[in-house]
Amino acid sequence: MAKFQSLREAVAENLRAGDTVAFEGFTHLIPHAAAHEAIRQGIGDLTLIRMTPDIVYDQLVGMGLAKKVVFSYAGNPGVGLLRRMRDAIENGWPRAIETVEHSHAAMANAYEAGAAGLPCAVFRGYRGAGLKEVNPDIRSIVCPFTGEELAAVPSHRPDVTFIHAQKASRRGDVLVEGIVGVQKEAVLAAKRAVVTVEEIVDDFEDLHPNLCVLPHWTVTAVAHVPGGAHPSYAHGYYGRDNAAYLEWDRISADRGLFTRWMKENVLDVGPEAFAARVRGL
Amino acid sequence: MTVSAFTPNEMMTIAASRALSSDDVCFVGIGAPSAACNVARLTHAPGITLIYESGTIGTAPDVLPLSIGDGELCETALTTVSVPEMFRYWLQGGRISIGFLGAAQLDRFGNINTTVIGDYRRPKVRLPGGGGAPEIATSCRKVFITMKQSTRGMVEKIDFFTSFGHGEGGDHRRRLGIETEGPALLVTDLAVWKPDPETKEFTVVSMHPGVTRGQVQETCGWKVRFADRVEETPPPTELELATLRDLQARTERAHGGKKGA
To answer: Is B238 one of the catalytic residues?
Structure first.
């Protein structure tokens, strides 16, 4: 049953050191405020799962909170590389991280399998690709009906998944619209799920009946954090702050500049800072 | 008719756009592929279906997206589906005719590396990785590739097989049980290349106006094969050039100085 909490309480109660955690969002609705709260609370030794570990995983890795990242595209989309993650992989700064690399298809299938309660995902993938030579989690299985060899990967079962969404009802039902990404699967695959939302409304009665809704009993906690996806975006509320993504390339290029930026914009502020960031977007 | 001066990059994007038709359903990569696909949509292929891996199907953005999931892609799409559905039903289900990819490293058989430069465990440069590309390369009916020529990018041997092209050439795809056609076109800033029907090695079939064979070879890390008859790529038309420049100007205004291409 969804519990309404402050973000501080929701993170403290649901994320523990050593957890496997997914902060999901496919370009859209990335739960930045939730990840910043985890950074403020200094919850470390995390295994991070994410299809596209962009800026927010660059920040978690750069702050030394991750021991392992499971991913399929470690870039700043349209801008370039994730410089903090690269520094950790190439130079072990601030600590070395283990990486488990997949394709998008594998990650999406692994979440879906997790949501479906299956131990592994089966799909037609990785044919001729080099990743299966370097990732022992990529194996194959033979179709018992046709004999076709198919790829198999273990399902994702995060201890906790964080997502951001447009609306929650007073009961805790969650509405997601626009690019829905893999968030529904990531929530249903996880043991616990925390959702930050732009707005809390009485109910969804006047809305389209097929909008993606996670019923309140699939969600552990809901926190009201307007602007909580910034610099990503919330369809219908504010646009993607592309300039911030471009700016991140400069900030993340330098260890000192990165450290100062994190102190000023994450450690020394609270989740309420997000609302101001999206004003005018 | 005289044609305005154009850059090699503009010629590349426009030559790539010409390979697309209104009947195509195209899985679009960010960067040069995205620019080419949208120029095609805005000129000779208005019916083309553009799909970005964020789940947007039949999108028609007014500016080039900075990421594969910019809001404009969803707002202008016929429909938007979840990412698992995108990869399972639409890509793996065989609904997509062309996968349009870029490359950090490419070899003569259309094998692509966007994962690492150097050894995987001790990379010289850790690149973003494959994202959707490993399966785009094998599930779309054909693959088109576009990239700027350089000896660093077009190499004898790629460091990592992010996306399988024609492997070692010949029938290597078939031997792996891959039924799709694979890389069918390479458009660079200097030339248009197609695979030899037998060996599958990319062969120059057309050079852009003013480009010499020497230039093509100097910027390519393998020994270039030229077709028996090498055509000259028709220069951009005024319409093509104006469409591309308008698109990039709108994009630049929207993204604060970055072209998204």
So the answer is: no
Nearest CA in chain A to B84: A108
Domain-embedded: residue B97? yes
**B62 CB-near residues (< 8 Å, 6+ apart):** B72, B76, B250
Q: Where are the domains of chain A?
A: 3-41+157-279, 120-154
Q: What is the ipTM of this complex?
A: 0.95
Residue B54: give its domain's CATH number: 3.40.1080.10
Q: Is A249 on the interface with B (CB under 8 A)?
A: no
In terms of residue numbers, what domain contains B120? 8-255
List of chain A residues whose C-beta atoms are within 8 Å of the C-beta of residue B54 = 26-28, 179, 181
Total structural domains within chain B: 1
Region A226-239: what's the mean pLDDT? 97
pLDDT of residue A1: 78
Q: Model's pTM, two decimal places?
A: 0.95
- The confidence band for B31, taking pLDDT boundaries of 50, 70 and 90, is confident
What lies within 8 Å, CB to CB, of B47 at 6+ separation is B22, B23
Q: Average model confidence (pLDDT) for chain B?
A: 94
Structure tokens at B141: 């009916």
B2 pLDDT higher than 80: no
Tell me which chain A residues have a C-beta less than 8 angstroms from the C-beta of B86: 108
The Cα of A9 is separated from the nearest Cα of chain B by a number of Å equal to 30
Between the CA of residue B71 and those of A26, A41, A160, A233, B252, what are the distances in Å?
Answer: 11, 32, 27, 8, 16
Quickly state the pLDDT bin for A15 (edges 50, 70, 90).
very high
- Among B residues 213-242, those touching chain A with beta carbons less than 8 Å apart: none
Do the Cβ atoms of B66 and A245 come within 8 Å? yes
Out of B10, B53, B201, B240, pick the active-site residue.
B53
Over residues B114-167, the pLDDT tens digits come to: 999 999 998 898 899 999 999 999 999 999 999 999 999 999 999 999 999 999
CA B44 to chain centre: 18
Query: Residue B256: its pLDDT value, please?
Result: 67
User: What per-residue confidence (pLDDT) applies to A210?
Assistant: 85
CATH code of the domain made up of A3-41+157-279: 3.40.1080.10
What is the tally of helices (H) and strands (E) in chain B?
A: 8, 14
Cα-based distances in Å from B111 to A161, B122, B150: 36, 21, 16
